[in-house]
Amino acid sequence: MSPTLTNLGLMGLTGVSAAASVVAVIRLRATMLRATGGQEGTQERPSKRALNVLVAVVAVGSAGLLAQRWWASGSGWNPLRAHVDGLLLIASMLAAVGLYVHRRPRLGGLSAFYLPLLTVILAWAVCASAWTYRPFNMETLHPVWRGVHLMGVYVGTLGCTVAAVAGVMYLVVARRLKLKRNPGGLMRLASLEALEQVIVQASTLGFALLTVGLVSGVVVLVEEGERLGPGWWTSPKVVLAFAAWGLYAVVMNVRVATVFRGRRAAWLAITGLVLLWGVYGIVTAGGGAA
User: Fold this and answer.
1) Cα–Cα dist 90/167, whole Å
2) Helix (H, G, I), strand (E, B), or coil: what is residue 135?
3) Dist. CA 287–CA 290, nearest whole Å
4) pTM here?
5) At what angle do helices 143-179 and 192-223 cross, to 10 degrees?
């Protein structure tokens, strides 16, 4: 697939995701108002089916675009040739997770929080394809190590993304409960207990896969040590990656480390994702391996 078609496809998916975000926010607002019995809450809200269709288009479109780029590249069994491919992988899987969330009544309202982030990821993919495209410089590595490293990092980031989204919603719901704003409407949203469970489970998955990515990354760095030069272990990319890994190691143990439960777990999950995206920003700006 030509870069122009890839860019147009990404722009289209970004637009669909943005439309889904608007629908999700309108549905959330209508749900909250309906619980108060206000006149605005009686107005018709967008159907859940419409939201599911939009998210399904993003999921299938992102996966299809990734598969097409993989097939056109002829790069063997590893579909991740550049950062844009990793972003497409995250986007397709996050949309698929979103479709699952829509079927879980205990996680009501979460779509209004993950869909804006999905839109940002797709917009970033447009930038990574159109303006900052750099293939990963990992051709000297064994294909197995390369594939394990990239899949561990990107799929692990998906788990961390879900944890951070649940963390943002946790903070919003907790604050509104504290201020006693529309308690009836909050009853229709995911509970703090359910959100904390998502944070822990998603962080555990993200931590496990990031561990695989980091261990294989160490092998990559050892093999590439001479090319990277002395002191590569103190580079911002390496430091931020291990800092994020450490935060998720804490979050996944909140059941035993009660001091990090609740708001602290939510903030740790959000901070860990910010650090991971910082790693991606450094990789995108400087090129090279993930």
Assistant:
1) 18
2) strand
3) 8
4) 0.87
5) 150
